[in-house]
Amino acid sequence: MCPRTVCTLAHVFEAAGLATIVLTPMRPVAERMGVPRALYTDFPLGRSLGKPRDQQFQSEVLRAAFELLKETEGPIIRDFPVTVSSDDSETLQCPLPPRFNAELHPAVDEAKALRAAYDRARQASGKTSLGMRITAEEVPNALEKFVKIASGEHWENFEFSAESIYGTVHDIRCYYEELACELVKGPIGPWATEEWFYDQTQAGDIILRARRAMRDSEVAQSVWFGLAPAGRS
Amino acid sequence: MSVFGKDREAFCKFSESMALPEFHGCSFNSPKPLPDAKVAIVTTAALHREDGGFELGDSDYHYESLPCDARDLKLGHHSVNFDRGGFAADINVVYPIDRLYELVEGGVIGEVAQQHYSFAGNQSDGVTEIRLDSGPQCAQEMLNEDVDVVLLTGT
């Protein structure tokens, strides 16, 4: 787990002679591990600086963190005064394309239509986290496999391993979440892109359907469980 | 059942019961004045460039070096149970490299290190490998570059 690893590294670096500051969303971990300096940030996991695309807020977090260096004794943990809650997130208003090719499954048609948006996102940000198992070009074909799994075909018919099916869904989700961040120029709230993907897109819907089909046909939980966040059905 | 990463109660309970390594004592170094200090970021978000990366599981304790001008970074923390949309929108929410340069311009910190570093957050329960091997090695790299302050972030 990241909070434990971060706190371990703080001890290791400090023992080597460096001064450290930990940003942590898990206060109990920093307390129990007695890290030299920690700023407790009550932000959702994955958002150490709290708010993407909010330069001022991020700078305030950093300034609060660096203030800890003025303390002459430790361990010390200070709380950042502003909370960012997953409950405050607004639904992502991200448009989806109309049907174009009625001969394709809606999820496949949708993924093809969104390719240009993904390419723009990649060009604009200069980065992509897609590539664990498949390329952007392969996303529509990968979704076709999940369409068939959802309709009852066995997942192993598609040359998937437990690792590769997990990595393929990771990449499909990256494709969608990254293009959503290109199409929506404003704030991206906590979990907003995850909710948009699973609740609003055809791709998210077919992955959830495939996951349920695997569960109901008694495929090992270790294969299907990680295709969506724990708690989703 | 709510989604784990959004469930604050489950999240707190988990953080209170997590198995943690013991450290006997706590080193505490006071750096040079911050306006003169060189700052590096070390993140456990498993960030990496196209030619790098981390293995699945909890046995990959190596670290990746991130040149200060690199923005073509992949988020190697692949878990489905945390919010990846923040990083997709803005790498600074995990890896605040651009914010550090602004703090240099504002005179808050002295300098941004040339190299920053990334580990996988998912490590063995004892975290022995990063305590004894890759962690000290990374510290030495930073000392070799005359880094004074390390900002640690996770996901």
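qc> Chain A touches chain B through 90 residues (CB under 8 Å).
qc> done
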